[in-house]
Amino acid sequence: MHGHMGVNHLKAFEASSGVLFSPEFFPFTIQTICSSNLEKLRLSYIKLSSAHWEKLMRYLTILALVELRVDADCAPSTLIRFLARHPAIHTLCIVPRPCGTWRTNRITARLTLPISKLDGPLSHVLPVLRSLRTLPTLTCLALSLQAHDASPDYLSSVLQCVDRCDSVEYLFISLPSQIHSRSAMIWPGTQSAVRVKHLAFDSSDIVRTSLPFAEDTLALSAQWIQAFPEVKRVSMRGYSALAAGDLVDIVRKVVAADVELSVTLHN
After folding, report:
1. pTM as predicted
2. pLDDT in tens, 241-260
């Protein structure tokens, strides 16, 4: 496609396929985005390499942008450099990739963002939080745990993120699809000083045949509630070898009597 494109009135651009980022469409896509006064940019499952993500994000400066969604193939350093040029972003989502790992490179950019919703794998969420100049007050922090995130256990990794916030209204933890060790699910005895009001666990992606105790991952995570002493609501969803009533009994042993509890189990 050729020709001049004037300023358009698009407020949101969403792509969930790599077609628009193929060599023949890439100039058109960039021109469309850059000629818009976008507030929302959502790019997921577009199948770009980290090098192509770096090239794409380098092209873009969208000053009105308040919401961004990208794939986890976009390197944390690339993402943070983009965020540094877009100081109005308050909602950030990074779509996890299976078994995705990144080296922890030194990132020097400092961010000033009114971030209120942050969703993604630890590989990206933690570097973003570390780069913020001030502790954010989040209405939602959603963490997608991967099998390799146990360092030394999953909850310790979660607390690294939570402790870089001023407060968290809603903490959603998606448990990893495969657990390689029961010890990775322990509660190490630490508690967060950060106020978390609503804590949610989801084990819907658990590979039920991966280990004998895989179906009990939701029950094992119940011990994590003790790390958040100010929580007022707990939600649990997914697979468990236990009946819902038995899971409720386990949770009731570790939470205050006034904590609201919701349990939804899959067959």
Report:
1. 0.91
2. 888 899 999 999 888 889 99
